[in-house]
Every structure is written in C-alpha cells, then in structure tokens.
Design brief:
Immunoglobulin-like, single chain, 2 domains, five-stranded mixed beta sheet, alpha+beta, about 200 residues
Length: about 200
C-alpha cells in the first residue's frame, strides 16, 4: 500500500477516534456525578412518599396528576403542581385549554393593578389565598413590574392547550392548603408539596 492511499484512511481513523473521545467526555461530564450527591437542579413535581402507610402502588407521572380544575372565562384551567421551592416561594403550574369558540387572550387574568397592565394576557392577576392565616399572596414581579408567570403571547385559538406557571411568595411552613384564584374563575383549592 502506498503512502498516498494510506493517508486518507489514517485521517478517517483519527477523526473517528477523536469524535469517540469527545462523545465519551461529554457523556462523562453530563451525568449526575458518581451518585454521592443528588442533582440539585432538577425539581420533582410528585410529592415524596411521607410514609403514611398507604401504599398506592406506582404513581402517575406528575404531568398527568390533577390537583384542581376550574372552568370559566371561556377556558378550562388545570393545576398539576404546587411546589414550595428552596428560595421561599411557591411555583404553581398546569395547563389551560381554550374551550370558547374563538380566540382567548387571557387579558382578564392580568389583574387590575396599573403596574400589571404591562404584562398583557398573562396569569399576573392570580393569587394564592391562605384562609386560615387570612392572607393573600400575589404573583411575584421583577423590578420592572413583569410577573414571574406565563404570558399568553398572541392568545390561544379555540381548542388549544398550553402550559402555564406562576410564582408566589411562600406561606408559612405550617400552611399547606391554599386556594388559587385568577380572574373570574372559580376558586381552586390546592395542597402545597415540598420541592426537592
């Protein structure tokens, strides 16, 4: 075999070896470590088993769980998770489906406060109500008045379903039952779970 014929073969083989090395490096760096520490960036939306003695078998995936459902304003609102997070806030999330015959913009959910008008169609006007503590928790906002919540850019077409979320200050540790309210939707009682 001449040198001219063997050079392309050597280059191809070198490229394969380098590519395989890069793939193995990426896989090794992308894992969760050696298993000693849990991954702190992932959040579970399924509450951990608190050992209450009631074995319910395998739990459904978090996205299929329904904590509460409310119908009104031309939509169906489903809450699939309500988690306390480490930063002292609660993230409530779920799905909203346009059940009206036309476009739904979410404008009636943005709230009445002047500061919230900049949020357009969004969940900015939502609140969590602690009936026992007699407190209402409003959606968190940044310094510009933008809510830490979903904005329904362009609205929802009839029959369309989208995911949504809203973040609130966390009620005191002993408070686990609150009511989610937004717009003229019926109040939706939910139970908070601890984030991991």
């Amino acid at each position: 075999m001449s040198i001219r014929r063997s050079m392309p073969a050597r280059r191809s083989m070198a490229a394969v070896v380098i590519t395989a090395g890069l793939v193995l490096t990426a896989v090794g760096c992308g894992g969760g470590g050696d298993g000693d520490e849990p991954d702190k960036t992932s959040k579970s939306t399924v509450p951990p088993n608190r050992g209450d003695g009631k074995d319910k078998g395998s739990q459904e995936p978090a996205e299929d769980q329904t904590l509460a459902e409310a119908k009104g304003d031309g939509v169906t609102l489903v809450i699939t998770s309500a988690n306390r997070d480490e930063g002292g806030f609660v993230t409530v999330s779920g799905k909203v489906t346009n059940t009206s015959g036309g476009l739904w913009t979410g404008g009636q959910w943005r709230g009445d406060e002047k500061e919230l008008q900049k949020n357009g169609g969004s969940v900015a006007g939502a609140s969590l109500v602690d009936g026992e503590g007699k407190k209402r928790y409003l959606v968190l906002r940044d310094t510009s008045g933008r809510c830490l919540c979903t904005k329904f850019e362009g609205g929802l077409d009839s029959g369309q379903t989208v995911d949504w979320f809203a973040q609130f200050p966390a009620p005191p540790d002993g408070t686990n039952k609150v009511t989610f309210q937004v717009g003229s939707m019926p109040p939706a009682p939910i139970e908070l779970s601890e984030g991991e």
